[in-house]
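Q&A log
Question type: sequence-to-structure
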Amino acid sequence: MTYDPSNPIIVQGDKSVLLEVDNPLYQEARDVLARFAELDKSPEYIHTYRITPLSLWNAASAGLSAEAIIAGLERYSKYPLPDNVRVDITDYVSRYGRLKLARRDGALYLVSDDAALVAEVVRHRQLSPFVVGQIDAHTLQVDPARRGLIKQALVVVGYPAEDLAGYVEGERLPFHCRTLTVDGRPFALRDYQREAAEIYYAGGAAHGGSGVIVLPCGAGKTIVGMAAMEQLQTSTLILTPNTIAVRQWIDELLDKTTLAADQVGEYTGLRKEIRPVTIATYQTMTYRKRGTRGQDLPLVQEFPHLALFSERDWGLIIYDEVHLLPAPVFRMTAEIQARRRLGLTATLVREDHRESDVFSLIGPKKYDVPWKDLEKQGWIAEADVVEVRIPLDPERRMAYAVALPQDKYRVAAESPAKYDVLDQLLAKHEDDQILIIGMYLEQLQRVQERYGYPIITGKTAVHERRKLYAQFRTGEIRRLIVSKVGNFAIDLPDANVMIQISGTFGSRQEEAQRLGRILRPKRNGLLAHFYTLVSRDTNDQDYGANRQLFLTEQGYHYTILYDHEVAAYQPAVVAAQCREALPRALLGNLAGVPNPRKVPQQLGPGRGTEP
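Response status: OK
Response body:
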């Protein structure tokens, strides 16, 4: 094969991949790499991806072959691929599914056509505790009660099993999705939502029924969950990040399905209803009895609400925002592998680096779609991303210099110099609906004192939160200050500006969630704006750079401004490619309607962008 030095990538022997940002083929190559490699670094000119066993196994589980991966690398590579990379890609992809879990006559078996592999893994200390006996050269009988632990062990061994052991059907629950919502608006699945649910379900086959769907915030992950429920027709336990998310699931289910109110229950700190469809929070599920920490107790004695997993004959468990799954729920999930499991998330990145546990216990990635693809189709809003770097004043600079390492970020993140830039941005978006979000409550309270805007924190009662969100949705209030509780599961479709004044260190998953808050499609094609204010030459700026890895993964470029440049900056108003004005009813979930035609719009003046 002839290689072209003008191509954008260099594949190195350590399985890192360098991608030139300014190359004309950058976007094409990025989209190829995103299917089987993980973004590691994204400075100005060269992005670094890394090909890992887990990234290859997720690709293989989604149907990508080693030949297709190698062909993609060769298509965009400047130089020949190192031989060891070719070999390793082929080897790791072939490892997925070489071992299979199967059930016969109530017993669980680990089987493989490769007798040498069976001989190898039966002696491995990670797996041997779960082996009941060896039936023949190709078959091991394993402990059915340890199905999840077996899959975790095989990931560690390096041969992830394809789980074909099947699932219990669960208590039957007949219902269907409506074609008209309760208030008469048309409703239909979008094409990608239907495809995601069908790939997950796999026609009821054993190779379906467990896995993760990755979709942007605002793309209707809840709708995908509902579609999976409709296909399975079984009682369902849904786990969510917070009570607001619980209420939103309930509202959606009652609005868009034929489920009755007495079939849908809330299991939170406020209510304990166990019904055919029950929606609970991770916080409630991981409530720990006082005095049990550090004791060697059975899981449900230490965390009594985990008993909910066995309170009904669940046929499906949905893990909303699966990247937030807490450790006790992982442990419980390892014990319920006979139940179908569906993870929903905008990003597989976990801050605790337990992506392999999601892979083995919830299931591999079954479906994802690039954010920019949905943006082009008009299903999520186009976004303009800007980072503003603001110097510390001399006094705070000294405070930062002498602060303890664990205190430096807070000193930088809470810099009062950010408020002058916040003043200017608010003035530039006078007619927009704006969320101001941050990590530190004292900082947010100072913002409230400065402007008088309403504020929502973890201490705000649920009924008050719902009231403020409703007022924001109707336009009664146009400015809202939110703490980290605003990261997840709030539905504010008309919010088109977010100003982030502090974040959770370098959390990429938080960046995904926050950007997602403003990506619901806008009326008249309005552009969404995501601003991050960081203190220049501090770890606040460094953490911001790490968070922006997520933006780069999804194809966004971000503009860098310095504080003195904000006054002259003119934000674009309308998306470069926007939909024609649609009736308000069509701004919801209407995949049954063809994608609306887009018309080019004139952008306001802009600056060069930095990836």
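Response note: Residues 190 and 594 are 9 Å apart (CA to CA).
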